[in-house]
Hints:
The complex is a heterodimer of chains A (about 375) and B (about 120).
Chain A (H helix, E strand, L loop, with lengths): L4 H11 L4 E7 L3 H5 L6 H6 L10 H6 L27 H11 L3 E6 L2 H4 L7 H17 L7 E6 L5 H11 L5 E7 L13 H10 L3 E4 L7 H4 L5 H22 L2 H4 L5 E4 L5 H15 L11 H5 L3 E3 L9 H11 L4 E2 L13 H4 L6 H16 L2
Parallel strand pairs in A: 1-2, 2-3, 3-4, 4-5, 5-6, 6-7, 7-8
Helix pairs in contact in A: 7-8, 8-9
Chain B lengths: L5 E5 L8 E6 L2 E8 L2 E6 L14 E8 L8 E12 L6 E3 L15 E7 L2 E7 L1
Antiparallel strand pairs in B: 1-9, 2-3, 3-4, 4-8, 5-6, 6-7, 8-9
Amino acid sequence: MSQPETESRRAEDLDSYHVIDCDCHYMESFTDVAEYMDEPWKTKFEGSNFDEKGAKQNLSSFFPFSTGDRQAHGKITREHSSYPDSPETPERIREGMSSIGVDETLLISHLILAGAGTTADDTRQSAFAKAYVEYMSEEVLDPDDGIYGLAPIPYADIDASLEILERIEGSEAYAGACFVTAGATPPLGNRKYDPLYERCEDMGLPAVFHTGGAGLDEYVRGGYQEMLETHTLGFLESNMSQIVSLVVQGVPEKFPDLDVAFMESGVTYLPSLITRLDEEYLKRPEEAPLLEKEPGEYITDFYYGTQPLEVSADPEFLEKCVKMVGPEQLMYASDYPHWDYDRPTTVIDLPFLSEDEKRGILSENAAEVFGL
Amino acid sequence: MSDGLVEVKPADAFENGDREFVQVDGTEVGVMQVEEEYYALQNSCLHDGGPVCTGKTHRKLLGEFTEPGKRVERTYTDEECVISCPWHGWSYDIETGAHLGNEDLKLPTYEVVVEDGVVYVGDRK
């Protein structure tokens, strides 16, 4: 069967752009990562009778310990990824990249998104993150082929986090440090995390904050019933809460050379957050004594992954949002292979961007931030 | 009395914390004595027109980042140099009128002069 005409035209559009994907998820297997775990975690895991993927989708599809089936009960499929039925393999990454038109990619752990909300202890997060860093480095990442990683930071355990940063220092394979915003207690502007930001700043390593929070947070316990509700609310709230914490507690003033990026909440929430926080700040500036300018100006100093871009919004509204944040602060992100991933065409199709702005968002901004 | 000066009241009738209100070219101006100094500012907050000059005067809270992981050191200035609108808390430097959170927001301030024992409000600074 010949390729549909629309698909062929999209491929031609994509060919003229170099694309860096700042947020792609490698669907690692627990079994693969466990091989790199220290004891006692390796033995504990192997004896736990846990599925290799961890939480199985089919259970949550009917009795949701989360808020239901991410693939919308069979509606969403991925031809070029093993997700959600099997763990990913390194070979399939290139296939997935090629299928959506990505040339270089930054991989973020899939399983760590669920782990960050773990409050039972901080040891298992550290055990997982350390093993993940080794596994990816050894078996998956391939910077010569444009496949980079973001190292998960188990920030509840400062010492373990510093060990991971030490481990990846100078590594070409790791382009940044990844902090999952869901579940951070205390929030990530707290002084206890200062040593991590200081280290990242010294290393010239961007701090990438990745949201989470559908089914992992209080929205489920509060009685929300659908993923439409929890994913909308949780993914926004998790990023918004950490942006506010970082800015009000003065992290950008403490570490002015630290590049900060937030992933996976789209862009339209930012003008809302900026204007609300600024409005409150003007009434209570004494509560943020480190700030040298309005909080919104720090927020627009941060970088943002574009996905899930609100492409169905009124174009005038979306344009205003993009301009408020600044096209130079935006970096294309796919979130592939997750259910609400974006193709680079979401950026290419925006009618209000110049060619320079499109090239910036699709690759040049990220190349500069991540030193690729 | 000099041209352009608006009389407020005798200096010896002013006490720290006193507020008086006069019209200057159609604008209500609050005149106050704070820690022995006189100040005059527009009595209409830039936020929503609240009576800012009836608000609290106070010291300014400063924050200093000393080293990573340590609490931000918070200290007050020695002098009362801030006035805050009682409606919503917009806070201004009492001398310059600059908003503490955004210096581009400037509440108009006025000269205060004392001549022959009488306090007057002069030109807008």
